[in-house]
Design a protein that fits this description.
383 residues; alpha/beta; 9-stranded mixed beta sheet; 5-stranded mixed beta sheet; 12 helices; elongated
Length: 383
Amino acid sequence: MDRDMDKDLCFMRRALELAKRGEGFVEPNPMVGCVLIQNGTIIGEGFHRKFGEAHAEVEAIRDASNRFGQQSIVGATCYVTLEPCSHYGKTPPCVLAIQSSGIRRLVVAMRDPNPVVNGQGLKILRDSGIEITEPILEDDARHLNAPYLTLLKKHRPWIIAKWAMTLDGRLASRNGNSQWISGEASRKMVHQLRSRMDAIMIGSRTARLDDPALTVRLDGDTVIPRTPIRIILDSHALLPLNSQLVRTAHAVPVLIVVDSSAPSERLNLLREAGCEILPIFSNNSEPNHYHRTEILMKSLADRKITNLLVEGGSRLFGTLFDMRFIDEVHVFIAPKLIGGETACPVVGGLGIPEMNAARKLESPKIQIMEQDIYIHGRIRYSD
């Protein structure tokens, strides 16, 4: 590896580190980081901090200008984790800021597949005389922005399954009781996970048995990136009006997904309580929960829901698993046994018939959370 390539990799890794800081704040936009280099030294850094605010390139140019003056940027090299935008959105095109700054060379991790960009940003900059190097650490950039790419290409959210289970693989006892399987440290980690989600989804049985709030509760002055929408799959609109979800609907959004069998009087009562109703009907002649799930996910993508946390139950996990819709899992295993043939298993559905076809996690991370074991990672789909 030559020295110039070595430098490119080093500075792009720094740009990727910066980009990660926007997680939970920038969606449905991608996470983007940028580093400006002059004579082998970093003169400016930036990342996309929040949806609707300045993009990474503008932040880095501003940082360099404030520290060393605008003239310091002339002839600089710009490392950015995603192709600069070329269209007007919440902010002006980044290509204009790059052109006017005097940057001589642009190094890009990956192109932006968004149809309004998709190579146009690089073409504009190349045509204006800026040297372009691409791609550098493209796999890392794609891994970082997998949720953004999933929303764009598959037209569904990035789906994260979270559950706590006993050592014998149960979500709840035979009576449906599950509070609490995991310990306090694990539950705090769940709230950190929730805080960067666009939405949290559960099934109707989980909603009735657990009566969860599904809100984000963090200690002290911790900044909460966003308040996730709470989504309940409740075909017949049976969610109790005195449930925590309904009682707090005016403060934190609740979206109830129903089908044609839901009685209108129940829907009216839930709407009056502040809940939004989303009817999802299958086009098939017979009800098909796989088809309805696919329609639902497209509907959530239309709302720009990028990261969706699914917290149960077993049937919902099974449906998403069978459809290969689960992208990432976060599992808390408690050193407890409850037994029982009718106690709730974790993943329902059809499942996989042969062990050699079992889904595996990519580079799973394993942590000890007081008495619990916390395992998380992305699911590997080989085909």
